[in-house]
Please model this.
Amino acid sequence: MKGFTLVELLAVIIILGLIALITIPAIGNIISDSQEKAYNEQIKRIEGIARNWSATNTNLLPDSGTYYLSLDTLKEEGLLKEEDLKNPKDKSTMNGCVAIEFDEQTNQYVYNYLEECNNKTNENETPIGYSGNVGIRTVITIPKMLIG
Model:
C-alpha cells in the first residue's frame, strides 16, 4: 500500500500548527506597527497644517496660555479634507484639536495634538474641548516680533 500513516499525517499537522503559532502573532505585530507609524505621520501632518494656519492667523495666538485649534476649524477653512481625518488604527474619524502654546523660555510655539477636546475655551470663544490625551509634541520657532 502506498500512502501516509496516521502518525505521519499528525506530525505534519502539528508542524503546520507550530508554524502558524509563530507567524500569526508576528504578522499581527507588523500590521499594528505600520498602523501606529501611519497614525504618527498623520498627527505630524495635522500639526504641520496647524503651523501653516497659525502663520496666517497670528492675531489669534496668545502671548501666554494655550490656543486650541479644532480639526473642524481646519476642515472648514479647507486645510483638511474628510479623508485626512480617518484614524489609520481603527478607521474612525479623528475629532481632536491642536493645542498651540507659546513657550516664553524657548521663544517658540509648541504644537500638541490632543485626541479629544472637551470644555476648553479660547479667549472670547465658545468651548472647543480637551480631555488630555497628548499625541506628538512639535516645536516651531516664530520670533515674537513677527507675531504682533
Notes: Residues 6-147 form one domain.
